[in-house]
Each structure stands twice: as C-alpha cells, then as structure tokens.
Amino acid sequence: MMVLTLHIRHEGSHQYLARVFDGKVQVGAATLHARIDEAIAAYGTRGSQWFPGVTAFAIWYGGWSIGAKPLAQMVDEAALLANRLVVLSAVVR
Fold first, then answer.
1. Residue 47 half-sphere exposure, CB side, CA atoms within 13 Å?
2. 34-72 pLDDT tens trace
C-alpha cells in the first residue's frame, strides 16, 4: 500500500491549492480547486493515474490531518472529509 500526502491550502476566494508530497518532497504539479471537497474528489478519482501505485492519501488542511484515506473513500465521502478538515482546523486554533 503506497500512501502519499495530499496537502490542501487556502489561497484566496474559492481557490484551494492541492499539492502531493512523498515525505518532504513535492511530487507532481500543484492543482487549483474551487472547494476542498473538489480537491479531495479529484485526487481520489485520478490519484492512481497521476501517481501509479498510490492507494491512499494522508490528507492535510490548515495544519491538521484526518489521516490516510483510501482513494474510493475520497471519492465517495469527499464532502464529509472536507467538512472534518474545516471543523478541525477551526476548532483547534
């Protein structure tokens, strides 16, 4: 099972920058998305195409992680996962 890190950062109004890391090294090109759930769903859908062998991503937003999530869960539960990240980053600050 290969797990990479998906780091999502708020860039501005309706702009979220998604980057993938293997350890501390960024791999692939960064992508922009209108919403956090769109970024999660995009990497869940195309993650194995963009990063052959990947089976899950450890998802980070706002300095907080919800752990490693399988690609299928990222597609099926993108909105729920995004909500968890937003709530976690807001509550823990």
1. 30
2. 999 999 999 999 999 999 999 999 999 988 999 999 999
Kindly tell me the burial class for residue 14, based on how many C-beta atoms sit within 10 Å of its own C-beta (0-12, 13-18, 19 or more): exposed
Domain ranges of the chain: 2-91
Residue whose pair of structure tokens reads 């539960």 in the numeric block: 77
Q: How far is it, in rounded angstroms, from Cα 34 to Cα 12?
A: 10
Give yes or no for a contact between 32 and 48, defined as CB atoms under 8 angstroms apart. Answer: no
> Which amino acid would we find at residue 54?
V
Please, are residues 61 and 36 in contact by the beta-carbon 8 Å criterion? Answer: yes
By DSSP bridging, strand 15-22 and strand 2-12 are antiparallel
